[in-house]
């Protein structure tokens, strides 16, 4: 487990954005297209703000969420709406968004269509993940209805999951996709999540799904 500790969150966000941008630039030197995969929620917002203003060949960058709540962009709980407001603006407005939501009553109604888009964007060049205090990452929640399937080596790239802790139905990338990322970063803040991270290292993946990436992730932590 490669853990980098920062004295404060501002410094961490600056350093992480610089690292992500550097990895994307290097990949663009040898690839026609690269994929950046990011979490929702408010924690990574400052990273998005920094990245959106950086000089990258954004027209060759595909951007995708780790997971999405099954709500449309008018909802305050839409990760896609947050992504548009914080990352896909300024210079980064030229990036191509790979959707994880399409209008339908349930995620299963549009899963095949969304899966085709995700498959076209693989492998992930740079993966940025978050983690909850319950040790979930993406929408791989402990106790989710199909968690074992989503953690399996032969899981499809995208699955619909439901969990009491998740609220709405979720659509999420699965363990094989997350493990296969070329570069993986895990962003966490605060003492509670630091303690959860340390517990996760000794728990089975079904109890601590974040463990699926701990062996190859660079973990960025600030108080």
UniProtKB/TrEMBL annotation:
Signal peptide segment: none
CDD domains reported in the protein's UniProt record: 6PGL (cd01400)
EC number: 3.1.1.31
A GO molecular-function annotation: 6-phosphogluconolactonase activity
Top-level class of the enzyme under EC nomenclature: hydrolase
Key words of the record: Hydrolase
Metabolic or biological pathway, per its Swiss-Prot or TrEMBL entry: Carbohydrate degradation; pentose phosphate pathway; D-ribulose 5-phosphate from D-glucose 6-phosphate (oxidative stage): step 2/3
Catalysed reaction, written as an equation: 6-phospho-D-glucono-1,5-lactone + H2O = 6-phospho-D-gluconate + H(+)
Top-rank lineage group of the source organism: Bacteria
Family: Belongs to the glucosamine/galactosamine-6-phosphate isomerase family. 6-phosphogluconolactonase subfamily.
Its job: Hydrolysis of 6-phosphogluconolactone to 6-phosphogluconate.
Name this polypeptide is given: 6-phosphogluconolactonase
Originating organism: Rhodobacter capsulatus
Gene name for this UniProt entry: pgl
